[in-house]
Amino acid sequence: MITLTPTRIGLALGAAAGLLAAALGLTPLVQRFEAKPYDLLVNAFADPELAATSRVKVLLYTDDDEVVFKREYPELADYPPPRSFYGDVIEQIRAIGVEPGALVFDLIMSSSSRVAGDDEAFAAAVRKQGNTAIAMRIFPPGAVEGTSIEPEPDVQPEPLPKAARIELYGDPSALPVVTNAQMPIGVLHDVVTRFGNAFVKVDRGDLLRTMPIAFRYLDSITPSLPVAAVMAYSGDSSIALEKRTLRGFAGVDVPVVDGKLLVNFRGPRGTFPTASLTSALALKPSAAGEAWRQSLRKGDIVVIGANVTGHPDVQATPVDESLPGPEFIATVIDNLLRGDARSRLPGWLNFLIPILLGAVVGVTAVLASRKRSALDRKSVV
DSSP letter at 106? Predict the structure, then answer.
């Protein structure tokens, strides 16, 4: 028979309190509050120097580019610019004289250009460049183009082109299931190295902290845009996914959590070498553009996207409430290359730690109470 000593009572009460805290920690309301300390830690440990020395660079079509573009092409001034404009960007990057390792277009090109021959000109530039990744959008069940609209019942999902499919070694059950796809125009299907999904879902507190490695679509596995970018860069065509590790991808092991990268942010916007297209490509000379060109090294990955007033592409993250989407993609690519995505404690530890802490607190409280009672008795004597 167990004797109920004060120490044991304190241990039991503390453990019970810890158990209750662990159970409450599984509820969405408490998890929302728990996210705030995590976000503070992400900011505290962000290392901008890793971005400054990264093999990933960012080019953005910005309001400054819009001004230049409207002046040069007044008849085509409405956003977006003709697709051949980005074909020219490819040629101008090559003209710098530093061969990039891959070009990544964080741009949705699902409809034909309004200019005749435009799509073919861009496709020709992509074919010449090689090592390219272009964004597509795929959505979970019940979501069409980022909404909650149900797809038409008589519309069947189409198989993905070869460049959007990869081989997976391991258990795919942790990967999200998607049923709707918005692919780039057909002329790109045979010239692009990899397509990757750029549609991301926010986490608790409406902040973006994670990025799925890949997705299940019909009978295919299709990568996220950052994974597609690294594949275009490294020549890989498959991934090996274990429970908590993306094994040997681009030569390194990458921590994963439930099939997702827990993003190791480097800092707010502009932390990665970033410039507007016209300044970086010397169409509108600037110190920022010159610094960007000087930072470019052979084999770097260049992420190209847009963030224009009226057409923003920004994400609310722990480090910046309006981080440009291409900079988020660049961050995840850098995590993959370095293998330093964040890790999360196993779920059973998250459950056990509050129980143990509660037990310790309970015993400490009982011992302190007994010591105080002993001192009180001594003072009376």
Answer: -
Full-model pTM = 0.81
Q: Return the minimum-mean-pLDDT range out of 12-26, 107-121, 146-160, 188-202.
A: 12-26
Which of 5-14, 131-140, 349-358 shows the lowest per-residue confidence on average (mean pLDDT)? 349-358
* CA distances (Å), origin 321, targets 33, 37, 315: 17, 16, 7
User: What's the pLDDT tens digit per position in 258-292?
Assistant: 999 999 999 999 999 999 998 888 767 788 888 99
Q: How far apart are CA 124 and CA 131, in angstroms?
A: 13
* Amino acid sitting at position 216: R
Residues 6+ apart with CB under 8 A from 49: none
* C-alpha–C-alpha distance, residues 305 and 329, integer Å: 10
Per-residue DSSP letter, 59? E
Q: DSSP class of residue 221? A: E
> Residues 149-159, buried b or exposed e (16+ Cβ, 10 A)?
eeeeeeeeeee
Domain ranges, ordered by start, for the chain: 56-338
Question: Residue 196: beta bridge partners?
Answer: 135
